[in-house]
Design brief:
The protein is an alpha/beta fold. The chain is 19% helix and 21% strand. The longest helix has 9 residues.
Length: 145
Amino acid sequence: MIFKGVRNGKPYRDHGLTTRDWAKIPPRQFRLDQLTTVTTALALDKLLSEDSTFYGDLFAHVVRWHGEMYLEDGLHRAVRSALRNRHIIHARLLDLDALHPEAPEPGGDTEDTAPITPRPAAPAPPRPRADVHGWTEPPDRRATR
């Protein structure tokens, strides 16, 4: 078996993350047998396409909810990896358990609830000045002669 499980749909509420929000999350490695997919359809043309991620995120998207990890986006990349005998993929993780520990238990009605809003990201560290490059200038050879 490639994945831990296969679901038809997400068991958690809509988190409201945009592509830009996902890009702020650093990717890390996940074993395929720890992930449950939320998509049951696999498009063969996307699976066989070399540039299927040309316009999207290079990394899959995983959501942790109630201790389970769900592969929300990246099914074709994950299956492609499995076909190449790789059992690990690089993905970005949104940990809903850490963001909202008071989330309702599974099986509750989530249609009437508002989307989950993630906490704002910490500000980026200041960038070094353009003239700072980390190495020292060589001495002027004319001055030493």
